[in-house]
Amino acid sequence: MSLDILSSAKVFDGWHKQYRHQSTSTRCEMRFAIFLPPQTATGEKVPVLYWLSGLTCTEENFMQKAGAFAEAAKLGIAIVAPDTSPRGEMVADDAEGSYDFGLGAGFYVNATQAPFDQHYQMYDYVVSELPNLIEEHFPVTDQRAISGHSMGGHGSLMIALRNSERYSSASAFSPIANPINCPWGQKAFKGYLGDNESDWTQYDSSELMKRSENKQLPMLVDQGDADNFLDEQLRPQTLVDAAELSQYPLTLRMQPGYDHSYYFISTFISEHLRFHSRYF
Ligand SMILES: N[C@@H](CCC(=O)N[C@@H](CSC=O)C(=O)NCC(=O)O)C(=O)O
């Protein structure tokens, strides 16, 4: 599969680059951004952290706002940030054009409902197609970690729980921890997966964690207690309860005074990078 480079900039002795490519999973053109740390300049292969962004984001938000490059350069970790949905003229969007469904809101699931099933196959894209592409084209190992924010925090925990053999660790900032029981998740799962709520649980981190039978991964979650989405949308306590039930090695830290923004992410992203680097 060929890649078109869109931008390239030197940063902290490494490189930030954006690419586009034709995706077989989403059947449209997809974009992603990659940070390659300085170690790769001499051909050294490095592990990869996959970052999944939240509602309304593209591949750019994390790279521009998280302030992750200095620590990733020091630790020798590549970071890959995909877009949050398929895009293009032929890609269906929410009828009202709302921010929490459709474009910019793929929820990292494989849609089964028309017309979204045509392109909204973000689960397959993130779990298989993108890592295959990255490992074919860049100087990286097959050691992977996964992290994300909000909708992307839901994605990172859910994907790690379902594919524990593919990752060495997982983390999240302000994840939608129990999407089947919050308005954002219910709207998205109904639209992408249909009315049968039993089909939704396969994509719900708290449900997956409760009945986790796969290898358990080290998992770190940070949540601000001044987050305006905390009680209605994020529901971190459901994840804590699930971890207790299955003895899952989850560390969930309530961070006093922090909100839902990238100011919060930028405060703790270095700790998350150091956390992941311990398990590569
Ligand atoms: N527009 C919405 C909220 C949009 C929002 O806060 N998006 C977050 C992710 S929320 C969960 O997935 C985000 O990361 N925005 C991009 C950024 O760069 O900050 C509203 O007004 O409620």
TrEMBL record:
Keyword Ribonucleoprotein: no
Active-site feature positions: 150, 227, 260
Reaction it catalyzes: S-formylglutathione + H2O = formate + glutathione + H(+)
Protein name: S-formylglutathione hydrolase
Annotated family: Belongs to the esterase D family.
GO molecular function: carboxylic ester hydrolase activity; S-formylglutathione hydrolase activity
GO biological process: formaldehyde catabolic process
Pfam families with a match to the protein in the record: Esterase
GO CC aspect terms: cytosol
Keyword line: Hydrolase, Serine esterase
EC number: 3.1.2.12
Source lineage: Bacteria, Pseudomonadati, Pseudomonadota, Gammaproteobacteria, Oceanospirillales
